[in-house]
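Input chain follows. Return structure tokens only.
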Amino acid sequence: MMSDQSDYQAALKAIDNDDSIPTGMYPGPKNAVPARDKLDKPTHYKVICISMYTKDLQRLDEMVDILKAKGMTKANRSALIRYALNEVNLDQVPQGM
């Protein structure tokens, strides 16, 4: 009977020899090759987190749904916010926003 550790090692060896499983997609030893090298990360955008009121988020989602119904299949929250950023007139932003 094999111990849990040797079962684990045997499973890792089998996975390592299976070319159909992408590297880094399973828990492996500390020296395992990561799924994606840090140097390969895109530099033209960043993932961020922002807070929004639930009513504003519902409105944003409704606007995305309307755009999709109009045939704009790539419409999403990010795209709509980026569009709005390009359209904002800073001279018209209220003082106490």
